[in-house]
């Protein structure tokens, strides 16, 4: 690529500056060989630096699927005490089902005695408490939910808590536990119902995701990133290329 750049400059440069094929060079009079050599060197370095930007760096296999959600899972224990945990490894399993990868937590203890739970989505406004419930365990922090400071109500369709500070909540029921062991399992659950605060509805009456200020988890640098504005229309914009 560097050699090619030199060749092009040599062929298209007209020292007299009277109408060469390269408009960016034809206006210059290279009266000094030293100036001309310096110009060639600049072109070579510029081409080389441009090549560097296209180099792909390899990384070993790790959990860097992007973007990752910030899910807050709400459960009750056998005494009816609420708990919440933060999970990122989850997604849509089927049209009416979700999947979440769970380690061994107070949440899995609760699901063993009560197979119903809620899932909500962390926002910029709930970030601090959402992170807190992911680093504090209900097994050894009895006042965990008090510290989180959320308003808690029982869900209308499942035996699980709803945290009122969040825009939208899925009411769920366990359907299957895959590869269950003492270290956790993959949870497949039915979406029984979806609740959405009316102030987060769009003009068409459906949830307005843009209003919610949802956040995603960056597994590379362990940060949270707020989602931005809508930039296109799914199943529509791509038709321009047909």
Brief summary of the model shown:
The chain has 242 residues and is α+β, with helices and mostly antiparallel strands. The chain has six helices and twelve strands.
What does this structure look like?
There is one protein chain. This protein is an alpha+beta fold. The chain has 6 helices and 12 strands. A 7-stranded antiparallel β-sheet has the order 3-2-6-9-10-5-4. Strands 1-11-12 form a 3-stranded antiparallel β-sheet, with no helix packed on it. Helix 1 (2-12) packs antiparallel against helix 2 (33-52). The protein is globular and about 80 Å long. It starts with a helix and ends in a 16-residue tail after the last strand.
Name of the CATH first level of the largest domain? Mainly Beta
Name the structural class: alpha+beta
How many extended strands? 12
Number of folding domains? 2
Count of helical regions:
6
Largest sheet: 7 strands, antiparallel
- What proportion of the residues form beta strands (DSSP E)? 25-35%
Helix content: 10-25%
Uncertain runs: 1-30
CATH architecture of the largest domain: Roll
Sheet with most strands: strand arrangement: 3-2-6-9-10-5-4
Give the overall shape.
Answer: globular
State the fourth-level CATH superfamily of the largest domain. Answer: Electron Transport, Fmn-binding Protein, Chain A
- Overall mean pLDDT stands at 87
CATH topology of the largest domain: Pnp Oxidase, Chain A
Q: Report the radius of gyration as a whole number of Å.
A: 29 Å
N- and C-termini, Cα separation: 34 Å
Helix-strand topology string: HHEEEEEHEHHEEEEHEE
């Amino acid at each position: 690529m560097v050699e090619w750049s030199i060749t092009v400059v040599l062929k298209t440069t007209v020292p007299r500056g009277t109408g060469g094929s390269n408009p960016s060079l034809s206006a210059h009079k290279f009266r000094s060989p030293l100036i001309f050599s310096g110009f060639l060197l600049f072109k070579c370095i510029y081409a080389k630096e441009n090549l560097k930007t296209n180099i792909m760096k390899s990384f070993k296999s790790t959990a860097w699927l992007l973007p990752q959600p910030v899910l807050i899972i709400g459960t009750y224990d056998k005494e009816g005490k609420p708990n919440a945990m933060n999970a990122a490894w989850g997604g849509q399993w089927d049209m009416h089902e979700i999947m979440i990868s769970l380690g061994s937590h107070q949440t899995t203890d609760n699901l063993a005695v009560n197979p119903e739970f809620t899932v909500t989505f962390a926002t910029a406004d709930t970030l601090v408490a959402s992170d807190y419930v992911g680093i504090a365990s209900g097994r050894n922090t009895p006042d965990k939910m008090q510290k989180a400071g959320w308003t808690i109500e029982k869900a209308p369709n499942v035996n699980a808590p709803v945290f009122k500070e969040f825009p939208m909540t899925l009411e769920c029921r366990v359907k299957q536990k895959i590869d269950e062991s003492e270290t956790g399992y993959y949870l497949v659950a039915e979406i029984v119902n979806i609740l959405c605060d009316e102030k987060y509805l769009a003009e068409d009456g459906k949830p307005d995701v843009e209003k919610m200020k949802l956040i995603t988890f960056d597994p590379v640098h362990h940060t949270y990133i707020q989602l931005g504005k809508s930039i296109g229309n799914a199943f529509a914009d791509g038709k321009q290329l047909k």
